[in-house]
């Protein structure tokens, strides 16, 4: 029939529908920042180009197989994009191969998972259904191309692909080399090509350890020793000598919670008071520096003063490396070291990593008694967690270093109603709204912990360090967060939102107060060692003692953003740190620090990927 001959082939229909759907998901379901018309254009073109790329291959198949290929490709493509979407809703990030191997973590997500799946998502099946139905009409929808036509159809693929890559390079020079930010990649080359890129990177980094040798460590050593601020003992050297260290990593706590109020009630009355007291030093400009590895990244940075990786969690990907971590060093100074965390031990591969970096003890979920009353959300609630930890803590030989990792204030911030002592916030984001109740609960738990430590006779001889591990409210909730803090969240404000509480509480200390230095997790290790009066002979760290007079002058984020004393740089924009006004990124202002940040992140990656510390003699 004449009509059949004229109908559009299915591979074209499928490419168009699938491309359009992908565009729709990029544009309206992921929260990607679009700064100019060019980006908008690329974002529209790349899904169509990518879709054509995968569907057009079908022209080489026999008609029946063409149809099979097209419908299954639509299904698999949809699954890939949907998994990314669900992942994105939780992490504001795209899946990488290392993250896939953290599968047992996904199982633990449990209750979080349901909140990440939305009803409207079923519309993502629309094109799949259409393609599926049309694919049953092989005679009308399949193509029977001559060899020349097949080659021509394939050539279009390469033209589209090349065009896309050229546009992307114009828009983001060195996109593939730097690749600190997955969002740029997805925005510019699409999610499918991004996955291919990611797989290539994964193979490459695996090979890096094999080819690494000791020649690389020299440059890195001299950088760490000479360009990361003063390594001289600071005013606080030995201020907590011989004391126990109780390090509390507070789940997902950000600074927006501190001093906040909901309907006249303080969210964190205990922490608010604590930071005002003379026994506490509170660093109000302390930034988390974590990436995909979340809590485990925060632990890794604190223990090693190295950066996490930009893909996956170091705790998973490089748990067997040689490190020179805080617990190992403390063990040498006769500390007993332990971790308390009421979750299964394999989460974030902790059991393996802790063993490697020589924690003496790890009290995981089997050390705690969970009942229906005392567990909700992610598991054992924080009050019971601290209370049940005390007997174990008493067993430690003094001095001890014990890390506690809380859990209640974890996304999706679930709390039984009768346990809530503060209202929910009222905005378009349930996540942000609920977060105040769990934050309040954790604040109460920490308050109780202080009392329990006093009763157990452990308080006086200890210092207590409190730190938020990473953000709890992702960019996805920028609108609601903007309402809450009373200003729109641009790049500058986004970085400022990465501040998390960091307090050092020293019983009997009289010189506490607020400090405004720009500091971060990378500085914790040198700071603690300094406080305890332990000299680090090797100084292979990227951080500086927070009390040092001469500091490195910037805090780098894993994606290459940074906060320096004078500026904040992110997404290619340089802001004045005080005013938040944009300044020229190529000027003195941001360019030199940017270079240093890139170098430092690269060095850190070299150490981890090449397992370079195995070539270094630390004693
Ligand atoms: C899990 C807890 C939470 O044990 O540390 O991990 P997170 O999701 O925050 O990385
Ligand atoms: Mn966490």
Commentary on this structure:
- Its EC number is 2.7.8.-.
- It is a multi-pass membrane protein.
- It is found in: Cell membrane.
- The chain crosses the membrane at residues 9-29, 41-61, 73-91, 111-135, 147-167.
- Residues 243-534 form the Sulfatase N-terminal domain.
- Helix 2 packs antiparallel against helix 8, helix 4 runs antiparallel to helix 8 and helix 12 (182-189) crosses helix 13.
- With 619 residues, this protein is an alpha/beta fold.
- The chain has two domains: 3-208, no CATH class; 244-548, Alkaline Phosphatase, subunit A, CATH 3.40.720.
- Strand 16 and strand 17 form a beta hairpin.
- The strands form five sheets. An eight-stranded mixed sheet has the order 7-6-10-1-11-12-4-13. A five-stranded antiparallel sheet has the order 15-16-17-18-19.
- The model has no long low-confidence stretch (mean pLDDT 92).
- It has 25 helices and 19 strands.
- The termini are far apart.
- The radius of gyration is 26 Å and the shape is globular.
